Amino acid sequence: MGAKPLNRPIVAAAATGGGYLEVASDGGVFAFGGAPYDGSMGGKPLHRPIIGAAAVAGGYYLLGSDGGVFTFGTAPFYGTAPGPPLAGTTIVLDPGHDGGNGADPAYINQPIWNGVEEEACDTVGAETAGGYPENLFNWNVAQYLRADLVAQGARVILTRDSNTGVGPCVNERAAIGNEAEADAAVSIHADGGPVSGRGFAVLTPVADGINNAVVPASDQLGTALRDAFVARTGMPTSTYDGVDGLQPRSDLGGLNLTTVPKVLIECANMANATDASLLVQPAWQQQAAAAIAAGLSSYLGG
Hints:
- The protein is an alpha/beta fold.
- The chain has two domains: 10-73, no CATH class; 90-300, Zn-dependent exopeptidases (Aminopeptidase).
- The protein has seven helices and 14 strands.
- It has helices at residues 105-108, 134-151, 170-179, 215-233, 253-256, 273-279, 282-300; strands at 10-13, 19-23, 29-33, 50-56, 59-64, 69-73, 90-95, 111-113, 118-120, 155-158, 184-191, 201-205, 246-249, 262-269.
- It has a six-stranded mixed beta sheet, with helices on both faces.
- The chain is elongated, with a radius of gyration of 22 Å.
- The model has no long low-confidence stretch (mean pLDDT 92).
């Protein structure tokens, strides 16, 4: 299979000799020489890749990174011991803004190309009437969420490593997810909407050329997050943004520049007194994180 992008192929010798099997991480099986071909998992969205293969008389086994075993031919099946539900997945969490943004306006106001037009590198973010900042809410939720996802076996990457820095710019945040080849990316925010408006909204990308290939998957991710957030937080869908909690957006660099499935969730409206009274509570922040984790698990098949 020389020069073909198999994505980390695995080689297993045929049980009877005279050939071998090559297996890609997506479960696609290629037989050579006298090795029998008894089927494969190729083309199925496994999310947790194949990491091993073994041939036996009459068939072969494929082993997923979650410990799941797939049998082919007449290979006997004796059971499996699946690992954590998100094992083998990479998830990028993007806690919006940063605690030091307000101290460096020259940096955050610099223009960047968002895939469609110029926009500012970043903003300070919203805050409640009592002065609780969005950047801190976003950071706290990301910390709870990372712990939830790691416990489920996921590899988790954050776009910033503290809440005391500046940036990074929104195009750099998108690049972090792209370079990681993330299975999913979520930008975590809280909105600064009208005082009378309540609720959350999941913002999804609109095809602009760069992100075309991942718009359908991003829509699926957005729906899964919306459903989990409704079921687990008690927060209503937004009364002022989107329809049924979903809002396509074509003006956000993080969504325009993504090449991996990605959405942005506005968890609540910081300007609304009822929403604000919830989102400042650590218990509700943990609840929001658990809801996002459930949505990601649903989307990734966990």
